[in-house]
Write a structure and sequence with these properties.
Elements lengths: L2 H15 L3 E6 L7 H16 L3 E6 L2 H10 L6 E2 L2 E2 L3 H25 L4 E5 L6 E5 L3 E5 L2 E5 L5 E6 L2 H8 L3 E5 L1 E3 L5 E3 L2 H12 L3 E6 L15 E3 H9 L7 H13 L4 E6 L5 H7 L6 E4 L1
Parallel strand pairs: 1-2, 1-13, 2-10, 5-10, 13-15, 14-16
Antiparallel strand pairs: 3-4, 6-9, 7-8, 11-12, 15-16
Helix pairs in contact: 3-4, 6-8
This protein binds adenosine-5'-diphosphate and N-acetyl-L-glutamyl 5-phosphate.
């Protein structure tokens, strides 16, 4: 394709996206390599410059795990959620809020744009309650496990976010929530991104991960388009498993909550956000209601 054709293919998308809100979930595995992270940041800055209101919700699971191990703690997960004791919450906050969040803000500044880094406890944006104990099978036995300082989302107060977006800032958000007593809770970043997208009435939710999209059982082909009901079938028959489950659940939550499009895209491939959003063929999986 000629270069001018590439640009012209993007025009209707640029027109359609102008003034709309997009929530981008940057997964921990898509941030391991500094060069790929920088590429994703460039795409994000471009989206902002073509007139989108951009919220970045980031994870950082792999780095929390690394810091825990360095401090002699072995991470444990139940249903994809990290068991979070008081010390783990402190580590998670140091990594997510102190390091990753501020790092992304600086990278955006380096690309010539302006960002504000906050976490879900600022302005009570993500109101959560401590999640109840979960039943876990250990050998032949079913046991109740308390996950500690892990939150389930009760509601979103988008006022601060809306103000920042209207003022022209890209908003970068760490997945730490607050409860009614003012305690901080650790929450899954995919879940946070889905709820934020719904509360903002976003036009798109994009989940950046380390695979090309939702793949078939043999992991040979990417589904280009899926309806929410089809993803539910793929979760029920085990085609979608592990870390992909919370991503797809948050996409389904988003599209059922009024977000027209949710995407799963490979953050490790150069400019995959732009190719997914501004070309007819796309590169990842698009989920609609
Ligand atoms: N149907 C599927 N298609 C693609 N990936 C899948 C599927 N089912 C499970 N996965 C797994 O989900 C992983 C993505 O989740 P995860 O590693 O938690 O990402 P992140 O750190 O970006 O949040 C993939 O690397 C893959 O191993
Ligand atoms: C409760 C819970 O599990 N919180 C996550 C928060 C970070 C996250 O979700 O990071 P990724 O998107 O990189 O997986 C955690 O502690 O790992």
């Amino acid at each position: 394709m000629r270069r001018e054709e590439v640009l012209m293919e993007a025009l209707p998308y640029i027109q359609q996206f102008h003034g709309r809100t997009i929530v981008i979930k940057l997964g921990g595995h898509a941030m391991v390599d500094p060069d790929t992270l920088e590429n994703a940041i460039r795409d994000i800055v471009l989206l902002h410059y073509v007139g989108m209101k951009v919220v970045v919700v980031h994870g950082g699971g792999p780095e929390i795990t690394e810091k825990m191990r360095a401090m002699g703690k072995e991470p444990e997960f139940v249903g994809g959620l990290r068991i979070t004791d008081a010390e783990t919450l402190e580590i998670a906050q140091m990594v997510l809020v102190g390091k990753i969040n501020k790092g992304i803000v600086s990278l955006i500044a380096r690309e010539g744009d302006r960002a504000v880094g906050i976490s879900g406890n600022d302005g009570n944006i993500i109101l959560a309650r401590k999640i109840s104990a979960q039943m876990v099978r250990i050998g032949d036995e079913e046991r109740e496990v308390d996950l500690g300082y892990v939150g389930e989302i009760e509601g979103i107060n988008p006022a601060l976010l809306t103000t920042l977006l209207e003022t022209g800032y890209i908003t970068v958000m760490a997945p730490i929530a607050i409860d009614r007593a003012g305690r901080n809770l650790n929450i899954n970043a995919d879940t946070a991104a889905g709820e934020i997208a719904v509360a903002l009435g976003a036009f798109k939710l994009v989940n950046l991960t380390d695979v090309d999209g939702v793949m078939d059982r043999e992991r040979t082909q990417v589904f280009r388009r899926l309806r929410a009901v089809e993803t539910e079938e793929l979760m029920a028959d085990g085609t979608i498993s592990g870390g992909m489950i919370p991503k797809i659940e948050s996409c389904v939550r988003a599209v059922k909550g009024g977000v027209p499009y949710a995407h799963v895209v490979n953050g490790n491939k150069t400019h995959s956000i732009l190719l997914e959003l501004f070309t007819d063929a796309g590169v990842g999986t698009m989920i609609t209601e």
